[in-house]
Amino acid sequence: MHQGSSGFVPLDVPPSMHSMYCANMDLITKKTGRLMLFAGDQKIEHLNDDFFGVGISPDDADPEHLFRIAARGRIGVFAAQMGLIARYGADYPDVPYLVKINGKSHLIRTEQHDPVSTSWCSVDDVACFARDSGLLVAAVGYTVYPGSIHEAVMLREAACMVRDAHRHGLVSVLWVYPRGHAIGDEKDPHLIAGAAGVAACLGSDFVKVNSPKRAGISGGVFLDEAVRAAGRTKVICAGGSATDPLEFLTDLHRQIHEGGCAGNATGRNIHQKPLAEAIRMCNAIAAVTYDDATPGEAYLIYTRGGTSG
Amino acid sequence: MHQGSSGFVPLDVPPSMHSMYCANMDLITKKTGRLMLFAGDQKIEHLNDDFFGVGISPDDADPEHLFRIAARGRIGVFAAQMGLIARYGADYPDVPYLVKINGKSHLIRTEQHDPVSTSWCSVDDVACFARDSGLLVAAVGYTVYPGSIHEAVMLREAACMVRDAHRHGLVSVLWVYPRGHAIGDEKDPHLIAGAAGVAACLGSDFVKVNSPKRAGISGGVFLDEAVRAAGRTKVICAGGSATDPLEFLTDLHRQIHEGGCAGNATGRNIHQKPLAEAIRMCNAIAAVTYDDATPGEAYLIYTRGGTSG
Amino acid sequence: MHQGSSGFVPLDVPPSMHSMYCANMDLITKKTGRLMLFAGDQKIEHLNDDFFGVGISPDDADPEHLFRIAARGRIGVFAAQMGLIARYGADYPDVPYLVKINGKSHLIRTEQHDPVSTSWCSVDDVACFARDSGLLVAAVGYTVYPGSIHEAVMLREAACMVRDAHRHGLVSVLWVYPRGHAIGDEKDPHLIAGAAGVAACLGSDFVKVNSPKRAGISGGVFLDEAVRAAGRTKVICAGGSATDPLEFLTDLHRQIHEGGCAGNATGRNIHQKPLAEAIRMCNAIAAVTYDDATPGEAYLIYTRGGTSG
Amino acid sequence: MHQGSSGFVPLDVPPSMHSMYCANMDLITKKTGRLMLFAGDQKIEHLNDDFFGVGISPDDADPEHLFRIAARGRIGVFAAQMGLIARYGADYPDVPYLVKINGKSHLIRTEQHDPVSTSWCSVDDVACFARDSGLLVAAVGYTVYPGSIHEAVMLREAACMVRDAHRHGLVSVLWVYPRGHAIGDEKDPHLIAGAAGVAACLGSDFVKVNSPKRAGISGGVFLDEAVRAAGRTKVICAGGSATDPLEFLTDLHRQIHEGGCAGNATGRNIHQKPLAEAIRMCNAIAAVTYDDATPGEAYLIYTRGGTSG
Amino acid sequence: MHQGSSGFVPLDVPPSMHSMYCANMDLITKKTGRLMLFAGDQKIEHLNDDFFGVGISPDDADPEHLFRIAARGRIGVFAAQMGLIARYGADYPDVPYLVKINGKSHLIRTEQHDPVSTSWCSVDDVACFARDSGLLVAAVGYTVYPGSIHEAVMLREAACMVRDAHRHGLVSVLWVYPRGHAIGDEKDPHLIAGAAGVAACLGSDFVKVNSPKRAGISGGVFLDEAVRAAGRTKVICAGGSATDPLEFLTDLHRQIHEGGCAGNATGRNIHQKPLAEAIRMCNAIAAVTYDDATPGEAYLIYTRGGTSG
User: Fold this and answer.
1) Does C219 map to a domain?
2) For an interface test with D, which of E9, E11, E160 has the most D Cβ atoms less than 10 Å from its Cβ?
3) Is D177 part of the annotated catalytic residue set?
4) Which of E12, E21, E153, E201 to mutate to test the interface with D (most CBs of D within 10 A)?
5) Contact criterion met (CB < 8 Å) for A229 and B63
């Protein structure tokens, strides 16, 4: 049972952009109202920690790995920085792209300073790039850290990004992570519901939140408050910290069917695998997201290949 | 006995916008000079604390609850962020809206850092949104924290918002709360009178102040200094912390008739109730605000339904 | 013996604005080269402390009191924020106005943080307001706090204000108060002379400085260094802390005739009095300022009414 | 065996600038895909420490020394500030220039404050200068310090510089040095790989990183992770701290042939030598970079003169 | 033997401005390549300390003293703030002016906070003022404090000022003083050479540095490193702290003939004298600067009047 989305257009999309907005939404949700976001923005967020080291496929050392997966796996949208997309996009013209417009390194730990991440470009720059390059840029994204002493600058830029995205007929995705000295438990379900509500106030189409936990236990049910708080802003979630594929797919299924999530944003659980396996993992996640596949069905896709689509 | 307002136009409203300004003022004051503001901006200010938990109706978990109340209850204006309005406004086209242009979370406590809240959009953005969406955007709002080490940026933005609101024929409402390490008693009547005077200097049409208390006791009479200090800027006030509806309505009546307030801004005392009850509470508040109903008359509306209008 | 001013036009007034600049200067100096500035900007600077309390006339609780005085008393110019002027100006169209473009509250004490006050609007905004409203906006004003760690932003804005004022044919007045952790004695005559020189460097027409004191004693003679340091920028001064009207008028006379001041900026000593008395006080001050009245002659005006004009 | 580059054009170069971009890339890489960058930007970065003192040729005391070398030695591009280029360029019109658009002194040590370096001009200013002067401005450069508490402003400016460079058909070079209180070992190969990845996310054509070391030992092999992490952004590197020319050339050869580097950025090892020797050193470095000369062959060029080109 | 300058035009002067740039350079250097700058900017930098007190002529208490000297003494250019020039320039139309575009008070000591001085106006504002006023505005100036934690903002503004000055055909002068907690000995010759190199990187025509000292001893020879580091940016220097006129003139002669300086910037040693003596001092300094007069010849001019010109 899918959450209906096709046809819904927020009022800050001007009439002349309605069809483009709907086309972009349909492209990345495959007309299901759900979103499978393949996250490639960690090259700045985590530097090379996610791409090189023990337990990581050597394939992942080269950023082109991300584009190969995005082009050959079944995904909704591939999120990366505009600069990186500009260097590979010509060879991967059929990938639907989300341009992540802010980013920071993880070198300064939260204990040292409250986080701040500001935009690298405007949505106008993105729209200009999309037009000139001919790429399928369907969405833009931004990370907000509520509770940081710098939240004011990020709330302002996020509001601006959503408004400008809609003005250009693009879909908006906000990553909202409460973080900073003022924050106790970043995974508290009630706090995460608050984060989801922030995205609703900012008018975003989608919000990515951390997977909530209570007493160290995560579960789809803990997402329910957030999904309700987000209202017409759809919640997507990471698949938890599980690295076992079956567990991961099971968590994801619960997030969608128990927690009411509208999809997922997955990075490491895909790109740290060798190319063929990473593609099968994409296809498995997409099957859960877009086709209501069971964890078992999806796991078969992961292990044996093929898609449910 | 109403405070006259119809026809008064501040000089920073350009002549070409006089009729629009008056129409907006009449719309939200119902030509009484008073204002019943239904506050929906806490989703960012208090995250999900005001919308989910013990003693809060499950209806309130979904932001659409706010729009349902605003559409079916008798209100002057419904205050929310532009992003949220953009996602629901098409289904609630008859609600008079106030776009709150700044906002912050409550995650950083005043003891940790002085508050700062900066604008998410300009009034030009709001005017553009109003025109494109066709919604009844009648007013804009902004919160200032005098006494914060960041007051300079907020005073500047507030002055700009009032000026731009008037330039576009919109009504302006300022929330003025002295807050920060330099502030002793936030509820001191003399300090609150100062806050009201700040709004007068900024040229606002309305100012929302905290309900003043002396020695822990609130009362309409403590508002008198503020109402006088505000001059031609009209003071609206929260209904105190009372959660008992009759007490709340009695406080409100005193604020207006003893304290000289021009209305109220009410959020939790409305939206934390189930829909039908919330609507009746709106109607009761509106009766006190707009029709000079007695607390008893208003309470009957709350308990039995109907309106005095 | 008046200090000549009529006809002097600084070179940053463009030729097309010469006649307007001279008209504004003549209006507020009554062609004497001196200025009696009635200060109404404390509603933000001192919140309600100057307007409500023991020893203050109840008339002063309402900001309209200021406009009533300005309209009926003999003054050079009435200084207030643009927002406040916008709400009352239509009823007081004959008052010559000075728009104070920055302001801050006094809630943060100097011991807590160095002061910063930034502009609420540009001089272009003021010029636009003057044109649209038809009011007699003859001057603009700005406060600088040299010695504050934030002095750079204020020096920049002050220089900009003077330049833009002259570009629009408006008279400029700077309030220059050395203040902050780096400052020892704010009333030191040599420091105040430095402050006056700052205004000269900024190109202002008038500078308001604190009344200098040495060893706790004030006197016109202590102003001499400042008046010389200011050069062609004219110094105006508060009338000291004396609240006895005769003493006040005597101080003022000395400031002008011993110290070489070109006038005064007076607020509390006028508006804390009941309307009729406040008007007589204005007239008394104006007599000293504009007509070279003796303190005794002026005091008679204060006590018996009438003007020397 | 050269890394192919000719013909590759990132998608943020607009079609009308393709030929100019390729011409600039060919000019500075001599169509080899490699870059020999002669660095003259230390006059601000290290003040006069690199130009005057024991072991430094007196020739180096005069900034014209840099231009003489750039004009007569075989280099790819000469990096300096636009102001300096403006004073000498007319006499050295055939040098290919890279305008370094940010810079800071080394007076504040990292232990005192995290570094911040902001741009002195925009790429539009550079393009305007190039057009008006007729100089061969082929590239622009910027330094980023990830891990500094100021990284946000530098990431934003760097992204903007790369985008604007490509919009103007210019080649972009980023210097990316993790630095600040949060950074442990600046030379850690894994951290440097992260830095290279940052440049890839920013979309730069080239990234200059520090020569990585492990346990105090440097070596071409430690560059491998960085070169892979950078993907289609080419890595250039300093020649290590060796000041013995043969060692320096051997290191450089290893960086290219073992580490996969696409060239080098060399300053002190060239300009601290007397003019004739400095020119021969350029030629030797160029031989390794562009002609795959062995260290021995290159050393002969350094000692005996001539070029391999 | 003069340093040739006539005819040299940096490449950031657009061709249409070549003749104006050369005319301005010739005007202030009297076609000698040297500059005698009469500094009047201390009214903000030192407040009234340099203008009033023991050992200072009473003439100096009035800022018009500076203009009288500039008009009647032989100088290259008179440096002051635009606001001050605007108030006196009409009466002193033949003085060549340098508009100093930034400035700060000395109230905050370096031990308290690192210095920051930001621009009061843009070079476009200066060009506009020059055109409208008809004054001989030939140059602009800016002070940079390398080593301050605020150096980034000043380096950026300085680079912008030089570029814009040249775009308008104006001569640029930078004051470069390393200052702040990170700086040990502000007078160290090697550090001052670094400061001179900073100005070269910024592309300035002239740089004013402090007179270098080693072990408390100053001397022309200590300037040599700075003069070489500055390259085609010409170094001017204060005449040391000597207040004995013959010593001052001897120091100046050595700075030029031993140190290779291109002139001087002198304030207090001129304007603290009575008018006639100050004029003779100007003429004496000008004789050394422009006419290669010996200290003895110049001293005669100072004592007996006349000029060598």
Assistant:
1) yes
2) E11
3) yes
4) E201
5) yes
A91 touches chain D (CB under 8 A): no
CA–CA separation, D187 and D194 (whole Å): 11
Strand ranges (DSSP E) for chain E?
A: 35-39, 77-80, 96-100, 136-144, 171-176, 206-209, 213-214, 217-218, 234-237, 263-266
Comparing alpha-carbon positions, the chain C residue that sits nearest to B198 is: C44
Are the beta carbons of B284 and B301 closer than 8 angstroms?
A: yes
**Helix boundaries (H) for D96-188:** 123-133, 151-167
Count the neighbouring beta carbons within 10 Å of the beta carbon of residue A109.
9
Residue of D nearest to A66 (CA): D231
What the block records as the tokens of A281 is: 């993992």
Residues C237, C239, C241, C242, Cα dihedral to 10° = 170
In a domain, E256, yes or no: yes
Tell me which residue has tokens 């539009």: D124
Please confirm, yes or no, whether C145 is among the known catalytic residues: no
- In degrees, rounded to 5, the angle at the alpha carbon of residue D64 between the alpha carbons of residues D62 and D68 is 130
The count of structural domains within chain A is 1
Residue B40's nearest CA partner among B4, B67, B74 is B67
Q: Do A85 and D232 touch (CB under 8 A)?
A: no
| CATH value at residue A255 | 3.20.20.70
Q: Is residue E91 part of a domain?
A: yes
What integer is the mean pLDDT of D91-117? Answer: 97
Q: Tell me how far the alpha carbon of residue E134 is from its chain's centroid.
A: 23
Find the length of chain B: 309
In angstroms, the Cα distances linking A35 to A72, C150, C255 are 17, 48, 76
Determine the Cα–Cα distance for residues D140 and B95; give it in Å rounded to an integer: 54
Residue D122: is it exposed, middle or buried by C-beta count within 10 angstroms (0-12/13-18/19+)? Answer: middle
Q: Do B229 and C63 touch (CB under 8 A)?
A: yes
Range of the domain at D232: 15-303
Q: How far apart are CA E303 and CA E280, in angstroms?
A: 7
Say yes or no: A107 contacts chain D, CB-CB below 8 A.
yes
- Give domain status of residue A237, yes or no: yes
Q: Which residue from A142, A147, A144 is spatially nearest to A180, judged by alpha carbons?
A: A147
Question: Which pLDDT score, from 0 to 100, does residue D9 have?
Answer: 96
Tens-digit pLDDT profile for residues E54-103: 999 999 999 999 999 999 999 999 999 999 999 999 999 999 999 999 99
- Let me know: does A99 contact A82? Beta carbons within 8 Å: yes
Alpha carbon separation from D182 to A241, D113, D185, D186, E81 (Å, rounded): 26, 11, 10, 10, 43
What would the pLDDT profile of A146-180 be if each residue is shown by its tens digit?
999 999 999 999 999 999 999 999 999 999 999 99
> For residue A215, how far is the Cα from the chain centroid?
26
Biggest distance spanned by C-alpha atoms of chain D: 51
Note down pLDDT in tens along chain B; length 309 residues. 334 445 799 999 999 999 999 999 999 999 999 999 999 999 999 999 999 999 999 999 999 999 999 999 999 999 999 999 999 999 999 999 999 999 999 999 999 999 999 999 999 999 999 999 999 999 999 999 999 999 999 999 999 999 999 999 999 999 999 999 999 999 999 999 999 999 999 999 999 999 998 877 877 788 999 999 999 999 999 865 667 999 999 999 999 999 999 999 999 999 999 999 999 999 999 999 999 999 999 999 999 887 665
For residue C141, which of C58, C28, C49, C224 has the smallest C-alpha distance? C28
pLDDT computed for residue C144 by the predictor: 98
Dihedral angle of Cα C242, C246, C252, C258, to the nearest 10 degrees: -110
Distance between CA atoms of E101 and E118, rounded to whole angstroms? 8
CA–chain centroid gap for D18, Å, is: 23
- Residue in chain D nearest E156 by alpha carbon: D120
Contacts across the A-B interface (CB distance below 8 Å): 138
pLDDT given for residue B306 in this prediction:
73
